[in-house]
Structure formats: structure tokens, C-alpha cells
Amino acid sequence: MAEKKFATTPKGILSGIRRVAPDVEISINWQEDPHFEWDGDGPDPRASGYIPHDVTVRAEIRTDDDILIFGEEYIGGVYEKEYEQSDDIHGYFPGMVNDALAELYKKAAGPMFHPSRKHWDPRKKPERHHQYLQQIAAARVFVKRSMRAIYEVEERRRRRNG
Fold this sequence. Notes:
Blueprint: H1 10-20, E1 24-32, E2 50-63, E3 66-81, H2 93-109, H3 133-161
Antiparallel strand pairs: 1-2, 2-3
């Protein structure tokens, strides 16, 4: 059986990332936001029993239960009923994973060379984690292919439904 190059569900995307980047962990954290102020059209969804949340998608590299490096992406004002959480964060999941992976990649690559002496400190060695860059890049490719596939599925559905 051929290896899948993309996935169209959050569970499939997480599984694909685990396959192509075994050292990269993705986690999603939902935190109720009691201070969020509704500024959208129509009535506040709280009136219908929905609760606003801040959602964080985190991509991290761990070693022996210690977090080595991480990247995060946040979104606020995500309304859900109590004890319900949308797997795809209302369609934002793939983009948030991609952004968290991009931040993780930047941190793993370490600081870029800067020609100004003001930014250079000979006593400090830049922290680089090059051994993980290939995995993080592979995970980003997988997520981008998945985003493209999701877009194409939605486009076909829109065309079919007129």
C-alpha cells in the first residue's frame, strides 16, 4: 500500500505528522475565555449556550519528557457548547498546525547570521537543532498538501452544489 501524501481530517493530519516527523508532537489546548467580548453580527452566541474559547495549537520537540523547543499558534473567540470541541477548530486547524510548525522550524534553525557586530556575542553559541529540521520540513509539506486537498474537496462540493 502506498504511503499517503496528505489527509483531509484532523485525525489523519496528526497521524501523517507522526509518520513523517516522529519527534514532533502536536497538541491542542482549549481554554475558556470569560473575558471575550462578542463583536460580530447578530446576537452573542452565549445566549444560545455557546462559550468562547482561546485555542492553542502547539508543535514541540521533546527529549526525555523535557520540551526542547516549541512553536505555537493561537486563535481566540472560538465558540463551542460546553464539553464540545470542534476537531478542526472550525476549519482553522490545518493552518494553525502549519503556522506552529513554521515557528518550530525557525527556533530549530537557530538565529541567522547577522553581519552587525552589535548582534554578535562570541560567548554565546547559538542554539540549533538541525537534526530536527528535516522532520519539521516534512511535516510542513504534509500539512500543506493536506490543506490543498481540503481546498480541492471544498471547491468540488461548491461547484456541485452550484
